Each structure stands twice: as C-alpha cells, then as structure tokens.
Amino acid sequence: PSLFPPGLHGIYGECRRLYPDQPNPLQVTAILKYWLGGPDPLDYVSMYRNLGNPALNVPEHWHYVSFGLSDLYGDNRVHEFTGTDGPSGFGFELTFRLKRETGESAPPTWPAELMQGLARYVFQSENTFCSGDHVSWHSPLDNSESRIQHMLLTEDPQMQPVQTPFGVVTFLQIVGVCTEELHAAQQWNGQGILELLRTVPLAGGPWLITDMRRGETIFEIDPHLQQERVDKGIETDGSNLSGVSAKCAWDDLSRPPEDDEDSRSICIGTQPRRLSGKDTEQIRETLRRGLEINSKPVLPPINAQRQNGLNLDRAPSRKDSLESESSAAIIPHELIRTRQLESVHLKFNQESGALIPLCLRGRLLHGRHFTYKSITGDTAITFVSTGVEGAFATEEHPYAAHGPWLQILLTEEFVERMLEDLEDLNSPEEFKLPKEYSWPEKKLKVSILPDAVFDNPLH
C-alpha cells in the first residue's frame, strides 16, 4: 500500500478507463515532494495521447492530468483527512487538453509547469477552483508569442468524479483563452463564454481543446457572437464576477473632528468622525506588520525567472466578497470599528480601473456587489447597491470603513451618471495616466494611476 497510495490508485483507475492502451503514460514528477519541502505541490502530472473524435470534430490532442490537489495518501502528510463523504483534499485535480501539432511525437511539458503554478496558488491561498472560474495570467501560457494568455476552468468532458477512500475527486479542465474572451467572461460569466467556445471548432469545440496557435478570438471568427450572445447576456444576467485581486488603494478625505478627544466616538451618533492621528498610526503600524505576513503574490510565478502580474478573478462560487477575509486577524479587535466617512478618494491602476464599468453595469445595476482586494496588502474596496443585505454602508452614510476595508454604497441614479462620466475607461488605447474623475457633490474622487504608485502600499 505504501508503494501505491489508495488516493493515487483511484485516479489511475479513471485514467485507465479512458486510456486502457496507455497503462504507463509519460509523467512529469516532482523531484522533491511537496511534503518533504519541495516547491511543487503536484506529485505527478500524467500525459496521455487522445485520438479525439472525428465524428464530433474533436482533433487529436494531448491530455494532462494532475495528482496532488486531492489527498493521495490519507495520512495527513499533505491534506487533513476529513472522511470519505466530503471532498478529498481540495476536492479536485486539474486537467488540460492541448491540440497535438502535426508530426509531434511527444507531449510538450510546459502544461505541467502551468498546472504546478495554479496548484501553488491553491495551496498558498486555500482558495479552490470551480467550473466557470477565470484566471488572468497576462502572459502566453507556453511563453511563446501566442494570443492564448489567460484561462477559464470547466468540468473535464470525459473524466468522471472518483470516489476514493479519502473522499471524492472531480476533474477541472484548464481552457486557454485570449484577452478579449477573458474580458467577455468577466463582463458576463465564465460558463457563458465556455458555451460559446464549444460551438466554435477552431476555438475549442465540444471538448474545449486549447490550440496555442489560434490567432483569432471567437468574436473575430464569428462577429455576431459579441452582439447577439454576450451583450444580450450582460444586459439580461449581469456579471457573475463578484471581485478581483487588484492594485488599488483608498484615502479618507473627511474633515478632521474639531475636538480631537472625541475622535473615538465613530459610527455612533450622526456625526461622521475620523480616527485621531495616534489611532491612525497604530493601524498603519499594525497593517505594516500584517503586510509582512501577507506579502506572497496572489498567484505565484511558474518559476523563479517568470515574474508576471498574475491575478485571480474570483467568481461568487467561492467565499463571497462581503466577508472580510483577513483584516480581523491582523488588526487588534479594539481598533476594528466601523466608521462613517464624509469623503473618499479611490485609487486604481489602469487594469483595475478598466473593470469599474463592469462593476457598475454588470453588478450594481443588477442589485449585486463587487470587491477590489489589494494584492499588496489587506486594503479592500467593496461597491454595494441599495439592495445588498449585510452592508455597513447605508444610503444615509454611503462611505463606511471597517479597518482597511471600505464599502461604498451607490444609488442607481448615481451609477448611471458615473457610467457616462467613466466612458473613456473603455478605450485604453487613448488613455493617458494619471487620470482623475471627481463628483464634488457626492464627495467622491477616483484616480487611475501608473502601476509604480502601488509598489509601496503605505506611501
């Protein structure tokens, strides 16, 4: 049993069902296992040759399957054993289908490095992936000149969930997409774009096979898809994207209280108050310590040489945005008070700012909320509509902060006005930084700033 762990045996069984003629596939193996201190969480990535299905217009391709996100061993060396009824480990393994190039006799190994990078993110953040999720990678997946620079996730079309002695394992397939397709998934939802990709053979077809040489987006292949399917879907459904990791910050522009001794009576009574300078410095010092603890990147690079601005766009299928995930653990309880602010200044880099129209049109106008979580610290900004329950921002006091977490409540009328004023965010090629938008009567200011401004989050 020690030579062939039961969890491993369960996944191998499903692979053998699909590939009975490939009992010993090529494998990429972690030289030093994660549980022995190695950097790669996946023990193995198996690589199979799949002949496709000509009747369904599915081309021949390489099929990659990971081993290690689920519990392979059941002895707590990697994952805590929680019983047979729930998920095994994180509850899933990753798969990837890469179109086989003519004359290619062996599968490329770069997809295994890609899967290790995603697995490192899951292990470090303890955020699991779900079908429909999308990952901004900002770099060709194979380090070439390809337009395929981001990923969507969906159920593998052939592999069935497996019951192992340590719980259930499902199989999530990585699907490579172009930037325009990622943006459409953000504006609408991942499942909708996956369905469109399935209908276009050149862009994935029914089994969603990634072709790194694909030079056209689905909207260039079929221009009607954008207007007839995506735009209509956004208008009807709104966006499923409830938050993103981002380069962002916010400042309290409220008037300081005249009586400094009374500055701690915040969020009680009708007069908004600021923390005194002493309190603010305490929070800054505590946050500074917290930033040292939480300085790991949101998505780690695949290897030490590759330092991309990686970013995970979170769908609401996981922990919802209206939970403050880590500020409570970093700031002493007595300092976590909800305080009302009179005036705020929001700061975003260009990529994050480009998502503000999505936040307003796709989320708030549909009665939902949207969160920006800083990748450099615990700062978070949540926009809420009047219909969101559990918000601490109200129509009477639309700006409220809980530690480093700011909530902004926007009425439908103000959202419509902001969308008009922010229209040029949709034309990044004409954009010159820095750019500032201001609504004086609402005491709200938004700045779009160069990335370098966010290198020091306490600056």
What is shown here, in short?
The protein has 459 residues and is α+β, with helices and mostly antiparallel strands.
Could you describe the 3D structure shown?
It comes from Sterrhoptilus dennistouni. Residues 38-214 form the Suppressor of fused-like domain. One of its GO terms (biological process) is negative regulation of transcription by RNA polymerase II. Belongs to the SUFU family. Residues 298-324 are annotated as: Disordered. The protein has two domains: 6-237, no CATH class; 242-255 and 337-458, Sufu, C-terminal domain (Gyrase A, domain 2, 2-Layer Sandwich), CATH 3.30.1360.230. Helix content is 24%, strand content 23%. The model is unreliable at 257-276, 282-311 and 314-335 (pLDDT under 50). The radius of gyration is 24 Å and the shape is globular. The strands form two sheets. It has a 15-stranded mixed β-sheet that branches. It contains eleven helices and 19 strands. Helix 3 (179-187) packs across helix 4 (190-199). With 459 residues, the chain is α+β, with helices and mostly antiparallel strands.
Which short descriptors sum up this protein?
2 domains; 15-stranded mixed β-sheet; 459 residues; four-stranded mixed β-sheet; Gyrase A, domain 2; 11 helices; SUFU-like_domain; alpha+beta
